[in-house]
């Protein structure tokens, strides 16, 4: 548990220094179309897309399942390409 706390703290520090608008990358909710959309920009020179998806697949599945419970659709776009 202590390692998880340290990792989270380091994550926040790194994003405060290197990543602009980190808090603004939240899903957009399109109420009129019943859609929850997430548009990600991944710098593939730093992280291969496959590695990113391997790390965050659980979170993306949770978003999709949550959208279903809410009666909406979850859409994911990465670097301008539709994924879900």
TrEMBL record:
Report the domain of life of the source organism. Answer: Bacteria
This chain belongs to the protein called HD domain-containing protein
Supply the source organism for this entry: Laedolimicola intestinihominis
């Amino acid at each position: 548990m202590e390692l998880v706390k340290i990792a989270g703290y380091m994550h926040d520090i790194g994003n405060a220094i290197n990543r602009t608008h980190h808090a603004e990358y939240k899903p957009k909710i399109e109420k009129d179309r019943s859609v929850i959309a997430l548009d990600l920009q991944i710098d593939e020179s730093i992280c291969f897309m496959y590695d990113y998806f391997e790390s965050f697949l659980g979170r993306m599945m949770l978003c999709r399942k949550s959208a279903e419970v809410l009666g909406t659709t979850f859409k994911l776009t990465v670097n301008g390409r539709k994924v879900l």
